[in-house]
């Protein structure tokens, strides 16, 4: 069997050194490819970075993150908070740790009851570790109330337990299709006519014939589970959310997606993503070389085009995902970081009010979009013409279609899958075994999923 584990892990290290964008493999397996928020300045050899912002007279708070870019954003928001809240001034000391170090350090501090910061970023794949037993985090329900009606509910739910919200979300991570208009126009394919995966498959066949097989409709991943996350969302299924936390990977959605991808590879309408995923240098080059005409990815991938593929400006259109059956959800939220307030904070209410202002308020959301380029959770901005029609914005001006038009079209269809303690194990097994067996080796889908199920049941 040709496995891509070595290349995949090398790709993860490469991605970890990228300084823009947010998130990757759908289940956000931190050991494998994690969330690219975990990849921003989060390579394991990074040194700690400490910075203090705000007046000495302000209430002092400590905040940890695994991404220096995040702390730079939060530091800016401290200034905005202090300007708007003269009677509640804060001074914040920001510390950026390597990804694993920070999460391990936070777990130890919460377990021992000492040494935890007031505020801390927690990557979505790590979040279940902090919701076990007696939760040592401060509920954000009251602090979220001023903004909650405008927030995407699923992005709050993923950081919740027993009716309490424990994480302030960073972005939606809405997954869309990226279509190369230059290629599709050249070969007479209208992407706006593609509504179902059946339509998509037929378009791929037409592209193959028109290009003499030189251009594939897409590339499928052996180093990430985004495609399977898309399928599960469309069917309303979830491999990590069985009763009592049981795992079930033998789902109709997973079977149908893998069988479809296997057929694409057999008939030559798709290829396997170089290095296993599109979110590494090899993937970028494959797109630049015009080898594929489309692929699904979260909206945070826009930053990859802006920063690593500027030659593609004006060539890429964004659109809702195709579905297996009409009426299914046409998007799914992938990746994320929830910022928490710990119960060890001496000023939990103030800390909660600040972080929800920074990440969920209209002003904070505007800055997340402008500074970080993420699709914000506050939907009020999705219809704010000063934001959505700002032609000077680097993301709006880059793409053939407006990302906010797509967001608004799928607003009520953005599903989110569960992240549980078994999510990393599922992702790891699929990325090192199942996807390679099915897509590289052509193994029977049912047989491969049965083996995966048996393995994962032993891991529970």
Automatic annotation (TrEMBL):
Q: Which UniProt keywords apply?
A: Cell membrane, Lipoprotein, Membrane, Palmitate, Signal
Question: Entry's Gene3D superfamilies?
Answer: Periplasmic binding protein-like II
Please indicate which superkingdom the organism of origin belongs to.
Bacteria
- Which Pfam families does its entry note? SBP_bac_1 (PF01547)
As given in the record, the signal peptide range reads 1-25
Locate the region Disordered.
26-47
Q: What is this protein called?
A: Extracellular solute-binding protein
Native species: Lacrimispora amygdalina
């Amino acid at each position: 069997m040709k496995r891509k584990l070595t290349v995949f892990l090398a790709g993860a290290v490469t991605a970890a050194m990228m300084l823009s964008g947010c998130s990757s493999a759908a289940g956000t397996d931190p050991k494998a490819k994690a969330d690219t928020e975990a990849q921003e300045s989060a390579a394991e050899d990074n040194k700690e970075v400490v910075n203090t912002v705000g007046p000495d007279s302000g209430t002092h708070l400590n905040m940890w993150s695994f991404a220096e870019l995040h702390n730079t954003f939060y530091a800016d928001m401290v200034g905005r908070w202090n300007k708007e809240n003269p009677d509640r001034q804060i001074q914040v000391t920001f510390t950026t740790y390597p990804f694993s170090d920070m999460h391990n350090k936070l777990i130890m501090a919460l377990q021992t009851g000492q040494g935890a910061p007031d505020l801390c970023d927690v990557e979505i794949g790590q979040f279940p570790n902090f919701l076990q037993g007696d939760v040592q985090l401060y509920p954000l329900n009251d602090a979220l109330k001023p903004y909650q009606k405008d927030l995407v509910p699923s992005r709050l739910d993923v950081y919740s337990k027993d009716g309490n919200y424990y994480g302030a979300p960073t972005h939606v991570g809405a997954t869309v299709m990226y279509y190369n208009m230059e290629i599709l126009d050249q070969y007479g394919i209208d992407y706006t006519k593609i509504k179902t995966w059946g339509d998509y498959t037929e378009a791929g066949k037409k592209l193959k014939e028109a290009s003499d097989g030189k251009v594939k409709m897409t590339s499928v991943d052996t180093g990430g589970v985004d495609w399977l996350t898309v399928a599960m969302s469309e069917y309303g299924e979830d491999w990590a959310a069985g009763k009592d936390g049981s795992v079930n990977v033998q789902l109709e959605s997973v079977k149908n997606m893998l069988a479809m991808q296997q057929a694409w590879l057999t008939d030559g309408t798709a290829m396997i993503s170089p290095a296993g995923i599109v979110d590494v240098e090899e993937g970028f080059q494959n797109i630049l070389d015009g080898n594929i005409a489309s692929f699904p990815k979260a909206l945070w991938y826009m930053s990859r085009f802006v920063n690593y593929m500027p030659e593609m400006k004006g060539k890429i259109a964004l659109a809702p995902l195709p579905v297996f059956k009409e009426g299914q959800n046409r998007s799914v939220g992938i990746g994320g970081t929830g910022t928490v307030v710990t119960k060890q904070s001496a000023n939990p209410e103030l800390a909660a009010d600040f972080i929800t202002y920074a990440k969920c308020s209209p002003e904070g959301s505007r800055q997340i979009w402008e500074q970080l380029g993420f699709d914000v959770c506050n939907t009020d901005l999705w219809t704010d013409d000063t934001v959505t029609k700002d032609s000077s914005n680097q993301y709006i001006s880059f793409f053939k279609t407006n990302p906010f038009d797509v967001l608004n079209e799928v607003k009520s269809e953005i599903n989110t899958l569960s992240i549980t303690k078994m999510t990393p194990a599922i992702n790891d097994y699929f990325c090192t075994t199942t996807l390679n067996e099915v897509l590289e080796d052509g193994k029977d889908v049912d047989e491969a999923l049965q083996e995966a199920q048996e393995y994962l049941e032993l891991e529970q």
